[in-house]
Write a structure and sequence with these properties.
This protein is mostly helical and about 180 residues long. It is built from seven helices and two strands. The protein is globular. It starts with a helix and ends in a 9-residue tail after the last strand.
């Protein structure tokens, strides 16, 4: 795993958090804003290492807190817990299947707000909860699953571009074959 892949995940998190706070169209239409960090955490947990998961949880939580009314870093522990759970169980998931990507993205996008709510209530905060909260939670879960479907091909393509491949005369050398592609 090279540093370019980790940097591209962190850059995607920064752009995602900025777009989440700047673009209000989903919030205006659906009444809820989709959080890109759980879907990115699913990607990082399946395609990267623990260091990338940790950096994404720390940086993503602080970036999101800086642009919202949340307490500073409140999503750090929920994001990290989701990433570590998926990373430890990575062999159980068929990474290439779209349904698995959607299900993991939706589950992560549903569990991060619940764990954050639990932390807020534990710390003595009084978040606004009403009947509309369930609708917002469902929109965030389904939106996170759909976002995971978009994130995987985008970041996989970027990883292919940034991956160091040995080249000779403009052709990629495949170590498993004797001839050039």
């Amino acid at each position: 795993m090279n540093g370019y892949h980790t940097a591209s995940i962190l850059l995607a998190a920064l752009l995602g958090v900025f777009i989440e706070s700047a673009v209000t169209l989903p919030r205006d239409l659906l009444g809820a804003q989709v959080n890109p960090l759980p879907a990115l955490m699913v990607y990082a947990a399946l395609q990267s290492n623990v260091l990338t998961i940790t950096l994404l949880a720390i940086c993503g939580a602080f970036w999101q807190s800086a642009l919202s009314a949340d307490p500073l870093g409140i999503a750090l522990l929920p994001l990290f817990m989701v990433g570590i759970f998926i990373e430890f169980n990575r062999r159980q998931f068929a990474r290439r299947e779209r349904f698995v990507r959607f299900a993991l993205g939706a589950a992560a996008s549903a569990s991060v707000p619940l764990l954050t709510l639990f932390l807020l209530l534990t710390l003595g905060h009084k978040p606004l909860l009403n009947g509309f909260t369930l609708w917002q939670w469902l929109v965030m879960a389904v939106g996170g699953g759909l976002l995971a479907l978009l994130i995987f091909p985008a970041l996989d393509g970027l990883r292919e571009i940034l991956t160091d491949k040995p080249r000779r005369d403009g052709y990629v050398i495949d170590p498993g074959q004797d001839d050039f592609k």
